[in-house]
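Quick check before the chapter quiz. The format below is the same one you will see on the exam, so make sure you can read both the input and the output lines.
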Amino acid sequence: MKALIAGLFGVGGNLCIILATNRLGPTGPLTVPPLVFSGTPAVNTLVFLMPIFSANDWSAPEGFPLSQLIVTILIGASGVVLVTRFKPRAPAPSAAAATPAAVPATETH
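Here is the expected output.
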């Protein structure tokens, strides 16, 4: 039951991040979602595995795919690094948009 409640809070938080990022548009903080969506599962997995490893004197249990876990965490971390390094930039304002257009003078009679 605790896991269900925690999962619902996680889904709610992720939904808030998606909605906030969409609301801010292309100039919004694009580094937050990759950190959350990749970092949260990694932290969750490590916290889940702490009791298992502590029961085995901090060594991997028999038959535990430790190398696969490490590779998966490294792939997620490299994805975060790539997204934050090559994030899209907001388009630069053009010179025509920066200067107001000349308003033609109107004659009043």
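If your answer matched, good. The helical segments are 2-24, 32-55, 66-85, 95-98.
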